[in-house]
Every structure is written in C-alpha cells, then in structure tokens.
Amino acid sequence: ESEPEKTAPEELEAKKPEFSEPVSEVPVSEVPVPEVPVSEEPVSEEPVSEEPVSEEPVSEEPVSEEPALKEPELREIEFSASELEEPDLSLLNTNNSSEPATTTEPAEDAIENAVEEKEKITRAIKSFINGEKDNAPSATTKQTSAGKQFHDRRDVIKALTTLQTTHKPRYIPGETQIKTDDFKHALLNSMAKMGNTSMSKSLNAIDGRTIDFVEMLFGAFLRDENISVALKSLLLELQIPLIKVAMLDTMFFQNNHHPARNTLDTIAHLGIGIEDAENTLFKTMQLIVEQLQNTFEQNLNSFHTALTALSRLTAIEKAKTGQQEEVTQKAIFKEHARQVVLNELQRHTYKKIIQKELKPLILRQWSAIMFQRFIKYGKESSQWNEIITLLKHIIYSVQPINSSEQWVLLNNDSDILISDIEAQLRTTRLSPGSIDASLTALREIHARLIETSEFFQESPDYSLAEKSLDEMMLESEVAMPEAGDPPHIQISRLPRDVKQGVWFEIYNGENKALRRVKLSVILFDEAKLVFVDRLGNKVIEKMADEFVEELNKEQSKIIADHSIFNHALGQVINSIIR
Predict the structure, then answer these.
(1) Taking the alpha carbons of 482, 483, 487, 488 in that order, is the dihedral positive or negative?
(2) pTM above 0.85, yes or no
C-alpha cells in the first residue's frame, strides 16, 4: 500500500494540471476572451455522450508544508471560453450607493449651487456688464462721455462673424487667462478693414464688458483641470460664437437650457476620455465645431444643428464603447474567477495531505465546477457555498485519522460523501469514465485509511461520534497566513467618490504621462480596481491601498464629469461678488 503524501509545490509545477473537460452548466453563445485557453470539451448540466479524459501520471514527490496549489498551476487549467455560462456582470461591483457615478468637487458645491440662483446671477452679470460695481459710472454714461465714437453693435456682430472662421486660438499648457486685449485689438482691426469705420472708434462699454465676461468664462475653462489639453483648444474655437450669443441674448447666461451652453457641455462630456487630438472622435467633434463656425451668423439653428450632431455622436460612442467594455469586463471577471478558485484551493489545502490519486478530482473536476459556480452565481450564493463545503469535506476525509471519533465519522459518512460528490459531477459534461475513475480513487483512499488506522473497530461504536463533521473540520483547520489587510478593509479606505463609471487622471509610472481612464471594475475579493480607456479597453489595474496612496499624494485624481459651463460661470460670479 502506498503512503499518503503531502502535495509539494514542485510536484504541482511539474504536473501542470489542466481540465480537459471544463464545466458549463448552460452553454451559451461564444464570447471572445483574450488570453484564456479554450479546451476541447465544455461542461454542462445537460447529459451528453461520453468522451474519454486523459489522465496524466503524477510522479511522487516529498512531503511539503506549503499550500497545495499556486497561481501558475491554476493558469494552466483550461476553462472553455466559448461555451461557458455568461458571467453575471452585476456580481463584479457592489457599490454602496445606487446613485449614478457622477462627481462634483466638494469645494465647488456652493459655487455650482449659486449657479442655480437665477436672481443672484442676473444681478451679478448686470452689475458687471453695466459697470455698476464700486459706484462706478454706468456703461451708458461712459459710452457718451468725452464725445467718443463707438461702433454700432450690428457692425460688431458682422466683424465677429468674419473673425470666427479665421481666428484660431490654441491652448498652451499652463495658460490660465485669455488675452482679452489682444482679441479686442484684432476685432477693431477687422472692423477697420471692413470699411465705413474709423480706427478712432472703440467698442462701447457694454459690448466691451460682454466680451470681458465671456473671456472670463473661457479663462475658467483653461483653469479647469478636468478638461484635457486637446479639448481646451477645441473649446477655445467657440469663443467668438459665444460672444455673439451673449450680445444677441441678454438672458443667455441665465438660461440653463440654451443650445450654446449645452453644446459646450456635450463636447466636454463626450471628450472626457480624449488624451490627444489624433483620434477619430476628436476629429469628428472638430468638424462639427468648424461647421458651426462657418454657418453661425445670428440664428441659433447652427447651435441646434451642432448639438443634434453631438448627441448622435454621443449615442454612437456609448453603444460602441459599451459593447467593448462589456467584453473587457467579461474577460476580467473570468480571470478573476480563476484567481478566486486558486485562492480557495490554496486556503483549503494549506498544510493538508493530498494523495496523488485525488489530484484529478480536485485539480480538474472540482476546480472546474467551482469556476462555473462563481461565474454564474457569485461568491455569496448558496450554490458556491455548497460546492466549497463539499471541497472541505473531500479534503478532510483523506487526512490521517488521529482519533476514534474521526475514524467513526469517516467509516459512517464515506458512502454519503461519495454519493454527494457523484451527484455534482454527473451534472457536468465530464466523461463518465473520468468521473468513475475519480470516485473509485476516493473510495480506495477511504478504505485504506479506515482499514489501516490504529483506531480501526470491528464493531464501530457510533456513540463516539459526539462532534459533527463540521466541528471536527474546524478544529483541524490551519489558518493560511495573509499578507496585508483583508480585501474588504482595503476597499473601505477608498473615498466615496471612487465608484464604477467615474473617470480619473491616473498615475502611470514615473516619467510617464498621466492617463485619462474610467473605473470599470471593482474586484472586492482582491481589493483590485480595473480601469479602461474611452474605447472600453483595459488600460491598468491598481490595488486599492496603492490607489488610495496615489490619491492622497495627488498623483492620481478624479475627473469631475460636471457641466463645465455651470462650473466656470460659478467661478466668474463668485469672483465678481468678491
């Protein structure tokens, strides 16, 4: 009779166990998963024709106190990517709040609330444009004083219309203010070239201060770190159209539903993940802006047309990137499921004896069932707990017998346990031959342990079994040491605004450019965050503690997906009131 052995990591590494027939309780349509090996025979609860399973010989190795399984081994186990049950993506993230993933910077809450106070805004804007602050003479008084001549507003609008197709400002990184004086000078030059005017004329105070106010708004855009460099240059091209709108509509700044401000907000929202100008999305938005510049004179139809085009583009991008992100999430979830299975096997086989005959059952068949149960039901489900409980029973049942109680329990429960295991295995597409081989191996291990034990009894005294199987298993458990805090503690340290769907400017390593990415997946079992780009492709993973440290050091930061117009207007209003 062969002696039981403890599983050595070296043995497992050499063996490279794999599932030739993974589990699939309900086959579904194929889902492409990158870098996931696909086996020949998926597993399902539906009975199918028998197919043989090749069993690899396992060489004997010395006893080891290390965990029975390590990550490289599990990665060699093949789960069918094409016929597995589709992962339930709702199991990926468990946000504490059902609120949508929108963010607002706390320090600016009061400012954005002020934007909603229409009367306050009206008073502040009127005071600024009419020059009523600090007891200064009104703009009406100033524009008729000293016999000065001023350009008619209609001429100003015409000159602005000419300029809006030729004036192409570009954002220079670090720039925080608009050069208003330079722009006004260019405007006056343009008006002089139009004829029927004189360079001695100037802008009347109201028009001049209207330009100042709009330029202050665009200065706030430049200072808004939530807007990417590429997008700031695109927004700057809308300065002149916005100046014209402000001159034509005195209630523009108070109208939350104005198509011009909605156009700005839509550009910012749609381009939140844009990192440079060399991509199709940016160039498409650029064409929409150019069309607006070429067509807008005084009628707002140009803004309505631009907003409609941007809304359609938003819907197209959302559908396209949403599909890709779902594919990415499924691949992440399946890889996560592998890691969960590995962790469970490591934990429950830590410092346990695993006979070589038992390894096909645990490493191939039971691991595949665990993988499928996690994919389909999640870790908090009764289906997952059922399969883990049976795993613990299997492992405990093959340990050396150290007491009469343990002997009686095994002698009494062996057939029941094997029957329960068989019931689970028969629901899969594993070949009946491989199932029979595993059950026979387990039955022989039990018989050997019972017959060779020093606690063997010809007439079993079942009164000795005072403790339940679960109680005895609990007493025999050896806790596997864990590095660092448990995952749920690490996750709890994340700021409340760190939720699925929130955008971040994220640290990507020393001397590397920051990336604009979206938090797509939170793996609570691993305390891991997975980020994707605007196309829905995986970019980077961060451990929760690592990410918290980066946020505290301001190496990474949240990108507030807010109304850039309201945000800027709030800043300007507050600066005026002060």
Answers:
(1) positive
(2) no
